[in-house]
Amino acid sequence: MLLAKQWLTNAREIMTKIEDTQMENIQKAAALMADTIEAGRWVHTFGCGHATLPIEEMYPRIGGFVGFHPMVELPLTFFTRITGEMGVHQFVFLERVEGYGKEIMKGYNFDSRDIMWLFSHTGINNVNIDIALDAKEKGMKVIVFGSAAEAKGKITRHSSGKTIFDIADLAVDTCVPIQDASVTLKNHQDKIGSLSTMAFVTAVWMTVTSVAEILAERGVKLYIHPSHNVPGDTTAKDRLEEALAEYKKRIAGV
After folding, report:
1. What tens digit of pLDDT does each residue of 122-135 get?
2. In angstroms, rounded to a whole number, what is the distance separating the alpha carbons of residues 199 and 218?
3. Is the entire prediction scored with pTM above 0.85?
4. DSSP secondary structure, 21-45, as one string
5. How many CB atoms lie within 10 A of CB 210?
6. Architecture of domain 2-7+18-251
7. I need a surface site. Which of 29, 42, 75, 221 has the fewest CB within 10 A?
């Protein structure tokens, strides 16, 4: 069980580092998002591959609330068949195709009051950079979560010459080593035990709870997804329907 404890130690160190170094930027990001949600607009969320997991964790989710709009492009996330159709080879190719992100953006309507919240561990792949550049052109603020410090010096794959962190109005560093995997395994070159998803989810909930705190203090009603598994809670279904009705109302303009 020594490797299990090693991974747990590594994860705790990352969480502590996020707390020690990123609270200021998390609070800044939360304040911007609170303004957007209070205005009835959207915080759009986007990532590729495993960077879609923090998006799915955020909304729709018990304890999440209306205001976050998940943009999950199926060919960039559904590669769990591994080989064959929609496999890993296709995914790796597609996330590096310049121009694909601009085509994704054509499927939605945006407002300059919106925010684009992007998740990328390395920040060098073309789809995310396309999305960030297009969002900036549309007047949106771009907030990026990823391994910002570790990604410095990495060469972008985009013709703009920029990484996603270069484009961001605000970046929160997930503090994960660029290799991501963190535990050395005997007789193997490659490490095991990745940390980026855990770090993303940690930073997401630190941010989302901060957004909720700001809005609650302003007296703004939040449409929160309740748990429908609590015995005796007879109004959970009604509260969920209320939240979904609010989402439908807002999404009609997206």
Report:
1. 988 999 999 999 99
2. 29
3. yes
4. HHHHHHHHHHHHHHHHHHTT--EEE
5. 19
6. 3-Layer(aba) Sandwich (3.40)
7. 221
